[in-house]
Amino acid sequence: MSTRGPPGNADRKRQFRETARDILHMAKVKRQFGEAVDAAGAVASAMERAYRLGFEDALKGSAGSKVDNARASTGVAVDDAMTWTLIPPRTRGTFWGICLAALGREGRTVTPSYLEQVPTRGGKWVWQLVVPERQTYEKRVGDGTVTTLFRLGLLEYGEDETRVILSDYGIKTWNRFCERGGQWPDDLVEKLP
Predict the structure, then answer these.
(1) Both ends of the chain: CA-CA distance in Å?
(2) Is 60 exceeded by the pLDDT of residue 75?
(3) Angle between helical axes of 10-32 and 66-74 (0-180°, round to 10)
(4) Lateral strand order in the sheet of 135-141
């Protein structure tokens, strides 16, 4: 006889992981600056919020939460822009850096910036962002991250197929994120309501 509960909610699980990453990150930063750390208190608060969300969903019955229903009806894209938190966390951080350097926060819809492959000292190939006037951005990006951004539709090949550029979908995703006031480092983590 199995005592398994109802099937899990993938979006809720993602939210829990992001909250856990946020707690660990904040504890690390506070320790670095010599501040008091109450990781146990943060975990207890997150568990209380999670319990409350589960309890509210249980009271609603099979209707589910408003957020889950909205996502189910609209899918990942909303008005041709991806929901920011649906980008995987590590990839999201890199995408944030690329967009900030290439587009800024002014709502631009085009950019001459692009990614090009360059060799490393070890002979591997990585992607480097080139911004206007052939200035190179110091951060280099691995193939796995670029592949994930391609799969999500946030990057695409340029006209000559040797350069990778932000897609219209990627630009709209960034601009939607900026319109909603995303700021570093809070924009890289999602807190439970």
Answers:
(1) 36
(2) no
(3) 110
(4) 135-141, 125-131, 114-119, 163-166, 155-157
